Amino acid sequence: MTKTWLDAFTPECSTWYHNKIASTSTQLVHPDIEKIMPTEEGAQAKLEIQQWTGYEATPLHRLGTVAKELKVANIYLKDESPRFGLGSFKALGGAYAVFKVLSHLIKERTGIEKINSADLRNGTYEAICKNITVVTATDGNHGKSVAWGAREFGCQCKIYIHREVSKGREQAIAKFGCEMVRISGNYDDSVRQADMDSHKNNWHVVSDTSYPGYMDVPKYVMQGYTILASEISEQIDGVIPTHVFLPGGVGGIAAAVSAELWRIWGKNRPKVVVVEPRAADCLYQSALSEKPMMSHGNLETVMACLSAGEVSLLAWDILSRSANTFMILNDETIAPSMRRLAELGIVSGESGAATLAGLAAICQNPIARMSLGIDHDSRILLLSTEGATDPEIYKKLVGVEASEIVTNLPI
Ligand SMILES: Cc1ncc(COP(=O)(O)O)c(C=O)c1O
Predict the structure, then answer these.
(1) pLDDT (tens digit per residue) in 345-385
(2) What is the whole-number distance in angstroms between the Cα of residue 228 and the centre of ligand 1?
(3) pLDDT of amino acid 407
(4) Into which CATH architecture does domain 90-217 fall?
(5) What 3-state DSSP class applies to 19?
(6) Mean pLDDT across the chain
(7) Is 5-88+222-404's fold the same as 90-217's?
(8) Which of 72, 82, 301, 349 could join 378 in a cystine, given CB atoms 3.0 to 4.6 angstroms apart?
(9) CB 395 within 8 A of CB 363
């Protein structure tokens, strides 16, 4: 038999669990989710980000041939690789949170209520901003967004990275002119170190993950992400997907997009499937225990940006209601999925391709397929969260430079 990319998807390559505490509410938005992410604040984030130089909706591709291969009606893939030239959706969250943090600090010092990003860019508040330092820990993409935001809005920036962050990712962040701090521990250690150093030095943490005592800024980060879901609803020609596959690191992006899709499509919203690496399964473990849990794996995974050991508490509060299924995936499913997308002209990085891998894993396993209610009529929405954010690793896994891949799909 001829070999295909689907050969990597054995029945053992994934495990799934249906969330027993998912909400079945037919309301437009769940009141607890509205409390964390008020509609009004999401709308403000959207208005703000749409004014930024270089803003453009990212493409929504239709993957007709892959839909045939996986025996579903249609697959739509939201491709975040071109987002603001930063290579991932993270450009939306970290930079927006830097803007919000600076706005609050300026308001505290001047009493001025309405700060706009153009004033920050043109130096109106330079004297204040240049003495403010924003800090975050990162696997790569969130740090790049914060460093970019700090450069755009004129404040100081320090980015903490852990031992596994590749040189390529480090350089891609450093080019925005921030100070890089590499620690010897893992991602969760870098979050703690950034937090401790910030308290000592009066810096301002702009983290994408929430933890006890740190809940406000990650809300801004998630509000920034929601624009992506609004774009999808405008691009999808009135189709409502039956299932959406979202990647899970600390849970921020899955929470933000699932909340926004609920707001847009209400009781007709798609079933939400959250995909994580087997080695970094904090959301899956939280679903099993029905409360925030640590990952059971060693966090070593090719899906570098999904390597989180602890959930974001706010994200869990949303996902425990909005996500229907949590699944974990073996690493060997990733390179074939990246290559399949590259054949179609889509550059999708190691974490970006996790959602196609998750869908293929379910579709190749008849029991899983039936259990998730996926059939010939299913309309699947996938989020490819990044392009080749580490070009060397991309080339190693796909076999060609990302720059040689030319998009040939209808948008
Ligand atoms: C490309 C990419 N995809 C997915 C994620 C996961 O996002 P979250 O940690 O908000 O779950 C990240 C996080 O850094 C990322 O960079």
Answers:
(1) 999 999 999 999 999 999 999 999 999 999 999 999 999 99
(2) 14
(3) 66
(4) 3-Layer(aba) Sandwich (3.40)
(5) coil
(6) 95
(7) yes
(8) 72
(9) no
Task: Give dist(CA 45, CA 225) in Å, integer.
Answer: 9
The token pair that represents 384 in the structure block: 């490819």
Around ligand 1, the residues with Cβ closer than 6 Å are 88, 90, 139, 141-142, 208, 247-254, 305-306, 308, 351-352, 385-386
Please tell me the predicted confidence (pLDDT) of residue 223. Answer: 98
Question: What's the 309 CA to ligand 1 centre distance in angstroms?
Answer: 13
- Distance between Cα 79 and ligand 1 center (Å): 14
Q: Where are the domains of the chain?
A: 5-88+222-404, 90-217
Catalytic residue numbers, as ranges: 90, 139
- Class in CATH terms, 5-88+222-404: alpha beta
Closest residue by CA, ligand 1 atom 3: 385
Non-local (6+) Cβ contacts of 320 within 8 A are 19, 21, 22, 286, 287, 290
What's residue 29's pLDDT?
Answer: 83
* DSSP secondary structure, 317-385, as one string: HHHHHH-SEEEEE-GGGHHHHHHHHHHTT----TTTTHHHHHHHHHHT-HHHHHHTT--TT-EEEEEE-
Of 314, 350, 351, the one to substitute when testing ligand 1's pocket (max ligand atoms within 8 A of C-beta) is: 351
Residue nearest to atom 10 of ligand 1 (CA): 252
User: Around Cβ 51, how many Cβ atoms within 10 Å?
Assistant: 10
Expressed in angstroms and rounded, the spacing between residue 140 Cα and the centre of ligand 1 is: 9
Q: What's residue 372's pLDDT?
A: 98
Number of CB atoms found within 10 A of residue 184's CB: 9
- Per residue in 237-256, pLDDT (tens digit) is 999 999 999 999 999 999 99
